[in-house]
Amino acid sequence: MTFSMTGFAALEQPLESATLLLELRAVNSRYLDLHFKLDENLRAFEPLIREQISAQLSRGKIECKVNLIQRAQANQATQLDEALMQQLSAMQEKAKVHFPQSRELSMADILRWPGVVLSDAIGQDTLLEDVKKLVQQGLQDLNASRAREGDKLKTLILDRINQIEGLVEKVKPLLPALTKEYQAKLENKLQETLKSIDPERVAQELVLFAQRIDVDEELTRLTAHVSEVKRILNSDAPAGKRLDFLMQELNREANTLGSKSVSVQTTQVSMELKVLIEQMREQIQNIE
């Protein structure tokens, strides 16, 4: 299956006294690049989340946000950590010695300080299991999103591949006619200059010309590369880097075809090939 590196998933998991919120965003990147924005109470779980993501994704810039919103219970009185507030006060007095112009902590600053407002702690083991399940479900949703986008990219690339195959088939029948056309031009030119035609000289010139315009090898390689693109798109392995390499090879053959061109038709085919290859290359940058 072809996966895009672009995707999004958002989930919400109610708990007994809190709610877990998860967001996963993925965009294209050459490597797996993970970024986390975790609630203070969840920072210890980052290695686990990193391991879960790395097990399922191989490329892309991934942003993972997990928030824990705790709900106050009706029968629970709000409490403050007096020891922590005393520590804050002492730290503020020490800091003022070095920074006398700094403003003092406001009441809002103190109440927002992590741990000042106490609530019933959620068991870490239980919370860990809830986070694991939520991240796993988020990855499934993210991969489903990436798979849908990947199918669109695959369809677009296969459409361009079919057009390339049509262009290759269009070029093949032109080569014998081009050789005959050149032979007629050569005979006319020699007759004008030498007043007589040397069959051996004509044969030599034709051999040289045939070698110069022979693009059979390029067409064969184009066909082989096209078959390999199809095979990779239908495989389950990550395809982006291999497809990117094949685009370079396809472009190389299209350039050679253009450099050997001796007619408007083959020049046009070479240009059309390069346009199609560039269109595929742009889309392949988004494939994992």
Question: Secondary-structure map with pairings?
Answer:
Layout: E1 7-14, E2 18-27, E3 32-38, H1 46-56, E4 60-70, E5 79-80, H2 82-98, H3 107-112, E6 117-118, H4 124-171, H5 174-194, H6 199-213, H7 216-233, H8 240-259, H9 264-284
Parallel strand pairs: 3-4
Antiparallel strand pairs: 1-2, 2-4, 5-6
Helix pairs in contact: 1-4, 4-7, 4-9, 5-6, 7-8, 8-9
What is the 3D shape? elongated
* Rg result: 34 Å
Largest sheet: 4 strands, mixed
Structural class, judged by helices and strands?
alpha+beta
Cross-sheet strand order for the largest sheet = 1-2-4-3
Number of domains: 3
Indicate the percent of residues in helices: 55-70%
Question: How far apart are the first and last residues' alpha carbons, in Å?
Answer: 10 Å
- Total number of helical segments? 9
Strand content: 5-15%
Uncertain regions: pLDDT < 50 for 5+ in a row? none
In round numbers, the mean pLDDT is 83
What is the N-to-C order of secondary-structure elements (H for helix, E for strand)? EEEHEEHHEHHHHHH
- Tally of extended strands? 6
